Amino acid sequence: MSLCPELNFNVDHGYLEGLVRGLKAGILTRSDYHNLAQCDTLEDMKLHLQCTDYGALLSTGNEDLTVSLLDNRLKGNIHTEFRCLRAHAPAPLSTFLDYISYSYMIDNLVLLITGALKHRDVEELLPKCHPLGMFDQMAAVGIAHTHTELYSAILVDTPLAAFFQDAVSEASLDEMGAEILRNKLYKAYLEAFYAFCWEMGGATRDVMCPILEFEGDRRSFIITVNSFGTDLSRGERRALFPSCGRLAPGGLQLLAGAEDHEQVKAVADYYPDYRLIFSETEDGSSKTLEDRFFEQEVRLNALAFLDQFHFGVFYSYIKLKEQEARNIIWIAECITQRQKSKIDNYIPIF
Amino acid sequence: MGAFFRSEEVCLVQLYLQSGSAYNCVSELGELGLVEFRDLNPNVNTFQRKFVNEVRRCEELEKTFTYLELEIARSLSPPLAVSPPSSVPSAPQPRELMAIEEESERLARDLREVSRNRDNLRNQLTRLSQYRGVLIQTHPLTVSQVPSSSLETVALLDSRQDIRLSFVAGVVHPWKVPSFERLLWRACRGYIIVDFREMEERLELPDTGEVIQWTVFLISFWGEQIGQKVKKICDCFHTHTFLYPEGTMEREEILDRLQGRILELKTVLSQTENYLQQLVCRAVAALPQWKVSVKKCKAVQAVLNQCSPSVTDKCLIAEAWCPVRKLLLLQSALLEGSRRNGSGADSFYNRLPDTSTPPPTLFHTNSFTSGFQSIVDAYGVASYREVNPALYTIITFPFLFAVMFGDVGHGLLMTMVALWMVLRERDPKLQTSDNEIFQMMFGGRYLILLMGLFSVYTGAIYNECFSKGMSPFPSGWHLQPMFQHYNWSDDTLRGNQYLTLDPNVTGVFLGPYPFGIDPIWRLANNHLTFLNSYKMKMSVIIGVIHMTFGVCLSFFNYIHFNQLSSVFLVLIPELLFLLCLFGYLVFMVVYKWLVFGPQDSDRAPSILIHFIDMFLFVKNKDNTPLYNGQLLVQNVLMVIALASVPVLLLGKPLYLYYNHRRRARVGEERPLVTESSSINTLQGDVEGGGPGDAKELDTADVFMHQAIHTIEFCLGCISNTASYLRLWALSLAHAQLSEVLWVMVMRISLSWQGYLGSVVVVVVFSFFAALTVSILLVMEGLSAFLHALRLHWVEFQNKFYSGTGYKLHPFSFSSILNPL
Fold first, then answer.
1. In sequence order, what are the residues at sequence separation of 6 or more whose Cβ sits closer than 8 angstroms to the Cβ of residue B210?
2. Does position B676 have pLDDT exceeding 50, yes or no?
3. Which residue, A113, B336, B560, B683, has fewest beta-carbon neighbours within 10 Å?
4. Could you tell me the superkingdom of the organism this chain comes from (chain B) (predicted)?
5. Euclidean distance between CA atoms B221 and B218, whole angstroms
């Protein structure tokens, strides 16, 4: 069975792969974006979205059409599709899909912790959480005061517990700590996910590992850039870098020592892909570093559909769909705020 | 039938719709389903079109309707299937639309309010019932706990004065109990006592209407800090907590009060429910009509969005394809539309001259012809005004199928199934069946009926019924004369397994069987050899006739499209080639059948050898000629056939080329003519216009196409003739398979004796019947169907049918309301 996974891939996962490829065909194209960008009001956008796979997404319900409603609906849409995939998934794929949802769980967790530190009401925060990362114990996060408490009381039952082992400390939670916690969890998560995909072997490894490597490297770069001007020491910073990327270990070592943007760029210069990303940010275009990374991510994820018999398509589909939601929201924001000049800054997918 | 031979004549009309009455005119056209509108603003986005606001209004209305539908589905008891509206309303006038808008809005508002009220009441009721459940369930717990805890309190009083036992009581969703309990335990480190009890009553979940059995919990704890934590945890698991008085007396008091309020609420709730039902019933009554109205309105607006406004903005200009026969109807529809509006200016149409795009194809089909038309359409929709092969398919398709499926019994079964579908065709249950495969069969019921009937006919010719022969007439062969002539005795019969009947002995063969194949052949050991030779020749004859007919049909195309030259340069060479080679083969087969009888059968020549010799221009000494002067005739035919190939290859391109050159020269000399003709075309007087007048002739392209066509045709003649041999192969396979089924299954049961035998017959027969239906009827039927389809698509239609047209989809309300 392990000799040639392609042979019986379709027995268990053929239906879902077909489903996800069908869903992928519904991802908005350049001409769709072009049309959306011409809209003058959200109503126009709604009319146009009706011609796409979103269909009646916006035409039900009685609330006024706002950007936040649009956002909720889009997220809900992804959630519905994901739940459908997850409910039909048999063993290895179900774990894989769970891994996808863990990253959203981490984000939700950190959101709630920071909210609780600012004494915001949990009820107010819950709707802001991503529906993909909802879990039962989520709302109780506020009762924990230290990492250990958080772990032993609340998270020990959740799937996140496995990623928490490195992060357990007696230090009490604060805002900086929450951010560090997020990065630590993410590091553990990415490494575990990478190991899982590596274990899967076959086309899944070929497709997923580059994507996760890129994801890890992106986090390393972003952490470095964001840590300038904070009191994060080199050692601490080094501990946050995911080790599954292509930067490891030499590049990470250099990054840990970087002091300003120029040095980060110097590190990126050693790697052709990243050099492109960093050099493009220099040439005065309006795109930020983050956008460049997103573009590269979209490119990688779109590649996943070229292969067959692997799980990468599920990950890529969710990520592309998320990017699409970001694009639509960006266009909607530009329309409502009358910032037509910036409307073209979305990242087209296909 | 003339309308079925060629597609309907369709012309492009320009409709000038007065802006006041445009809506009515289009709605009138929608009712009739006459014309197909063309989109005149393909480059305009949906939201930039003229009537986008009206479309939006319709969408808003549909949104309201969706809400009403949801509410009906949720609240109506007993639930009922929405029946189609009894009378179909026409597209609503603006005033009517306003009324619908107003009324539906009001209804939705009322419904929303009442159902919100009802939900509130229900929620309250659930809460109260939960509270009651909590109090009842926890009562024994606290009663038993109080003394012990008071003891403890007494014991602890010495050390800590402020300590007090507090309770949190509530209900939690049963699924969440384990994680809730665990979290409580972990977070509070065991400084609490939790009790869980299942509530006796089952209550509805307010959001989903799901009925669940809630779990009651009672948490007893000491201290403020832990209390905070417990409350937070309770919040996070969406539990409902209730005030829990400590004294037993107080609790009983609350319980009494609760009982009273629950009763009160129940009466209020039932009244609200009644009112809600009334509202919902009103919605149920009105909704189907409204939906149809709004759908029609939306469709009309969508059409108006495709029109372009005129310069003066007084009218809209639409372009549409309309069948020429229906132009008067179009006129009257436009008048009717204008009249209904009461506006002075009439809408009118203007027939546009020939356009660059060929008009769409329209066939009027009925339930009988639609199945056959769809067989042809599946290959390709006929080009405009092209000969429609569907007309001939009606007979040839079932016939070719039956040649492969010849069996009286199987044919009868098929006929009966089809007849059942035909007789019950008005049954709505069959018409709206969800089963796709059944729908496909149902759509082709007449096709299946004809296939069945023809199978009975060919089965009778083959003399087969469930692989058994029938002898309605006495056989033409007789044994008695053999006995006399050869002095056969009973011993001879016993001693030999096979004896030959000699037809040359007088009295043995008295003449052919009156109909079909003599049943005596079933006993002969050369049965298969005889049938194979017969079926093979029959297949070739049928094939050559079918193909020749196809080639002849192209005559009507050439005549209609004014290509008289092609008749001489394409059709006649093709016919000559086909008939001189394969027509002659057929002639030889028939000639040999007629001329050579039993007495000179040993001297009969081989047709195959003759045919090969004909190609090689040689004479074979061993093979006696069929008739005198055969060699000469064959050589002449061969030369004609070969000579027609270069004509076919070069004739048409050269003709076109010279024609083009001549016309170009004439055009240079007299430019005035072209000018005046262009004015004519503008006015729409000239209908056809000269073909190839304006377009440049691409010589290489024409030569290339003709070369491909020639090669395809000449090679195709050979391969297609061979392809018709599938008729023989499949009919042989069918006969053999049914025989195998009889011999291997049914005959076993017949060899049993006694009572047991009858039981075995019943069992084996059921097996036999199942196999007959599944293998012989369904599987073999499908395979024969497929081959008949191929013979039509490839062998027949490629002789004359281009199939490059597109269908006319008229704008009609009925197709919008009941999409297929």
1. B204
2. no
3. B683
4. Eukaryota
5. 10
Residues of A with a Cβ under 8 Å from any B Cβ are 35, 38-39, 43-44, 47-48, 51, 59-60, 62, 122, 136-140, 142-143, 152-154, 156-157
pLDDT at res. B684: 38
Alpha-carbon separation of residue A94 from A102, A160, A206, A208 (angstroms): 12, 16, 19, 16
Q: Which residues contact B550 (CB under 8 A, 6 or more apart)?
A: B795, B796, B797, B798, B799, B800
b/e sequence B340-367, b meaning 16+ C-beta within 10 Å: bbeeeeebbbeeeeeeeeebbbbbebee
Residues of chain B with C-beta less than 8 angstroms from the C-beta of A48:
45-47
Q: Compare all CA atoms of chain A with the CA of B66 and give the residue at the minimum distance.
A: A60
Residues of B in contact with A156 (CB under 8 A): 186
Q: Which residue in chain B has the smallest CA separation from A40?
A: B47
B74 touches chain A (CB under 8 A): no
CA angle B247, B250, B252 (to 5 degrees): 110
Contacts of A51 in chain B (CB under 8 A): 46
**Which of A44, A121, A141 is best to mutate for the B interface (most B CBs within 10 A)?**
A44
Helix segments in B189-242, DSSP class H = 224-236
Query: What residues of chain A lie within 8 A of the CB of B53, using their CB?
Result: none
Q: Assign B206 a pLDDT band (cuts: 50, 70, 90).
A: low
**What interface predicted TM-score (ipTM) does this complex get?**
0.73
- Could you tell me the pLDDT band of residue B680, with boundaries at 50, 70 and 90? very low
Q: Rounded to whole angstroms, what are the CA distances from B551 to A263, B573, B686, B800? A: 81, 11, 31, 6
The pLDDT tens digits for B46-78 are 777 888 888 888 888 888 888 888 888 877 777
Q: What SS3 string covers B553-603? A: HHHHHHHHCCCHHHHHHHHHHHHHHHHHHHHHHHHHHHHHHHHCCCCCHHH
**Which residues does residue B219 pair with via DSSP β-bridges, in sequence order?**
B168, B194
Q: What residues of chain B, 53 to 72, have a C-beta less than 8 Å from chain A? A: 55-56, 59, 62-63, 66-67
Confirm if B532 and B728 have CB atoms less than 8 A apart. yes
Q: Are A184 and A240 in contact, with CB atoms under 8 Å apart?
A: yes
Q: Which residues pair with B221 in a beta bridge?
A: B166, B192
Q: What digits encode the pLDDT tens for the residues A291-326? A: 888 988 999 999 989 988 889 999 999 999 999 999
The CB-based long-range contact list for B254-261 (8 Å cut-off, 24+ gap) reads: B254/B131, B254/B135, B255/B132, B255/B135, B255/B136, B258/B128, B258/B131, B258/B132, B258/B135, B259/B132, B261/B128
What's the CA gap between B159 and B150, in Å, rounded? Answer: 15
By C-alpha distance, which of A317, A313, A301, A302 is closest to A13? A313
Q: What is the nearest CA distance from A150 to chain B, expressed in angstroms?
A: 9
Identify the sign of the CA torsion B526, B531, B534, B535. negative
**CA distances for A125 relative to A115, A119, A133, A301, angstroms:** 7, 11, 14, 31
Kindly write down the DSSP assignment for every residue of B27-72, as one continuous string.
HHHHHHT--EEEPS-TTS-GGGSTTHHHHHHHHHHHHHHHHHHHHH
Strand ordering across the sheet containing B215-222: B192-198, B215-222, B165-172, B240-242
Q: How far apart are CA A141 and CA A84, in angstroms?
A: 28
Give the whole-angstrom CA distance, residue B600 versus residue A176.
Answer: 112
Nearest to A152 among B48, B186, B237 (CB): B186
How many Cβ contacts (< 8 angstroms) between chains A and B? 60
> What's the CA gap between B608 and A212, in Å, rounded?
72
Measure A139 CA to nearest chain B CA, in Å: 5
Give the pLDDT score at B418.
94
User: What integer best gives the mean pLDDT of chain B?
Assistant: 84
Buried b (16+ CB within 10 A) or exposed e, B209-218: eeeeebbbbb
